[in-house]
Amino acid sequence: MNRIRKYHEALLEATDLCLARDPRVYLMGLGVPDPKGIFGTTLGLQQKHGARRVLDMPTAENGMTGVAIGTAIAGMRPILTHQRLDFALLAMEQMVNQAAKWHYMFGGQMRVPLVIRMILGRGWGQGPQHSQSLHAWFAHVPGLKVVMPVTPQDAKGLLIASVEDDNPVIFLEHRWLHNITGHVPEGHYTVPIGPARIARAGKDVTIVAASYMVLEALRAAELLAADGIETEVIDLRTISPLDSDTINESVSRTGRLVVADLGTKSFGISGEIIARVVEAQLASLKAPPGRVSAPDYPTPTSPALANNYYPRAPHIVAAVRRQFGLPVDEASLMVDNSIWLDVPDKSFTGPF
Amino acid sequence: MDLKQLYYEMLRIRRVEESIATLYAEQQMRCPVHLSIGQEAVAAGAAAALKPGDQAMSGHRSHAHYLAKGGSLRAMLAEIYGKATGCCGGKGGSMHLVDLAAGFMGAVPIVGSTIPIAVGLAFGAQLQGSSRVTLAFFGEGATEEGVFHESINFASLKKLPVVFVCENNFYSVYSPLEVRQPRHREVFQQAIGHGVESHQADGNEVAEVLRLTQAAVEKARSGGGPTFIEFKTYRWREHCGPGYDNDIGYRTPEEYEHWKALCPLERTRRQLLAAGTAAAELDTMQARIDLEIAEAAAFAKASPFPTRESATQPLFAA
């Protein structure tokens, strides 16, 4: 029987459960105990688990990341939250030079069990500094694990797995996923960090996506089905370590690969995924792999400019059609100002 | 710890650093080294204020802090030689010393970066109900880093059991303090703005370093919160490497000679002799130390390099 919950409720359940199960776990972030509770993901936790273990913090991303690392090597298991990934850029030094390297650099003597949650913004004028998808930056750093679940079930299971992992994990939540619904099993379970998931099976083309782009890929697969193209959609769930095996196995059957990514195109994960497939099985490719990503310029704020910034299902459809030599109506990929594409659904009325 | 023991600790640090400077010419220590010669009193005095369960962290110039906190000399030299028996198994080198058994929780060469981590150790102690105190060693350059201010603000906010020990040696590499911080504001005054008790003292007077740090440690342990102490001292050798760099023109010979005359070891030696300690006893100390260093260096040199296969691990904790 399905137990339908929202994505933000799944994250709340996971955090509540981790706090209840392990006294070493604590949760810290700007706004964690405030009335909005990080988009509902931390609501009521301070009342339930106390102000010692669920706490607000100074607006000091880098310093507080270091503090979290210090408590982690002292035996605690911190969860640190940032309301936007863009804010966490202030903490790159502690994440990249310290958290990622302490285990290796000191010869395995110390562990840094640290989860850093970050939210990727989109739409409603989030603009240049509230909407960046820089998962590739973190994935580029050896020693960090990077997860970005799309379903409520995976959100809960991967957050629990991240908290129970003995290493630093960057946990990325797309803002447009917080209100989606899905089956969420009750109680404790984990979704392992690493393995991807076949979100839809198909024999003609493989679309690799993560986080919110999985939803766009599934919409694209529906549209392509009308043309008789059977699409396989791989939901990466984890960006690093990347599940090359699942991708390669799929492409070995379909011979076609399109990567749909939230990040900007150049030097992103799409290039990495395609490189791994080309290295492994160039001969099985029936067409050059395609990339669907954000364009290589900052996110503009005006809805009139942002409307055509984010990649959507039609762009994925077009990339697949090109692989089959089918005509693509380029003009149809652009929208005018008669419709605003800056909200995930009608329930979203801003402001962030 | 009495003055004679403090002298021993300082002399040991001095002799280790001088031995590294000598051995460096053999080109077998293949990593940067930042020597603490001239600054021994801060390390020896501050570490002496800590109890065995207490913890310390440091930055790029950390040999003295590591040794004063009780870090293994063998493991440190082996690490500098890049050997498998080193304190990081060869992964870290001179700039990444660690000895968990001794409570020396790590050093890194990004200026100021262990300050928040040390504050985190103190926060962890508070969360865990532990009575341990954490001491953060850093230079005055680190007080220019944003992360220092973020960290001391949080330590002040939560009244954390941490002591901030700032070694002011007046230079960040070759950049003097006057091009980096306003002349009309002393380094230690920054901490006052964060609501933290703060002191300034002579960092070449080991008994004074111990006295001030001991008071700060006791206050931290009893729930009184953090203290900041600025100790003025001076680096004799070059910023990085075994030699001297007075010839390149960033500081004057007069300044160098002034500080050399304030040698923390000589001052303590004079005090001990005046108090009746026999010179022969102090000279025996050096012979004993040199023997220990020779043995440790031989151990480090004879130790095997890490295997090629070990380079990939341990990336993640299992």
Task: Set down the secondary structure blueprint.
The complex is a heterodimer of chains A (352) and B (318).
Chain A lengths: L3 E3 H15 L3 E5 L7 H4 L4 H5 L4 E2 L5 H13 L3 E6 L2 H4 L3 H8 L2 H4 L9 E6 L14 H5 L5 E3 L4 H13 L4 E6 L6 E3 L13 E4 L4 E5 L2 H15 L4 E5 L2 E3 L3 H11 L2 E8 L4 H13 L8 E5 L8 H4 L6 H11 L29
Parallel strand pairs in A: 2-3, 2-4, 4-5, 5-7, 6-7, 10-11, 10-13, 13-14
Antiparallel strand pairs in A: 1-8, 6-12, 9-11
Helix pairs in contact in A: 1-9, 4-6, 10-14, 11-12
Chain B lengths: L2 H22 L15 H8 L7 E4 L4 H6 L4 H8 L23 E4 L6 H15 L5 E6 L6 H13 L3 E7 L2 E2 L2 E2 L12 H5 L3 E6 L3 H16 L5 E6 L20 H8 L3 H11 L4 H24 L16
Parallel strand pairs in B: 1-2, 1-3, 3-4, 4-8, 7-8
Antiparallel strand pairs in B: 5-6
Describe this entry's structure for a reader.
The complex is a heterodimer of chains A (352) and B (318). Helix content of chain A is 36%, strand content 18%. The model of chain A has no long low-confidence stretch (mean pLDDT 97). Chain A is globular and about 60 Å long. In chain A, the strands form 3 sheets. Chain A has a 7-stranded mixed beta sheet with strand order 3-2-4-5-7-6-12, with helices on both faces. In chain A, strands 9-11-10-13-14 form a 5-stranded mixed beta sheet, sandwiched between helices. In chain A, helix 1 packs parallel to helix 9, helix 4 packs parallel to helix 6 and helix 10 (212-226) crosses helix 14 (313-323). In chain A, strand 13 (257-264), helix 12 and strand 14 form a beta-alpha-beta unit. Chain A has 352 residues and is an alpha/beta fold. Chain B is built from 11 helices and 8 strands. Chain B has helices spanning 3-24, 40-47, 63-68, 73-80, 114-128, 146-158, 189-193, 206-221, 253-260, 264-274, 279-302; strands at 55-58, 104-107, 134-139, 162-168, 171-172, 175-176, 197-202, 227-232. In chain B, the strands form 2 sheets. In chain B, strands 2-1-3-4-8-7 form a 6-stranded parallel beta sheet, sandwiched between helices. In chain B, strands 5-6 form a two-stranded antiparallel ribbon. In chain B, strand 5 (171-172) and strand 6 form a beta hairpin. Chains A and B meet through helix 4, helix 6 and helix 7 of A and helix 5 and helix 6 of B.
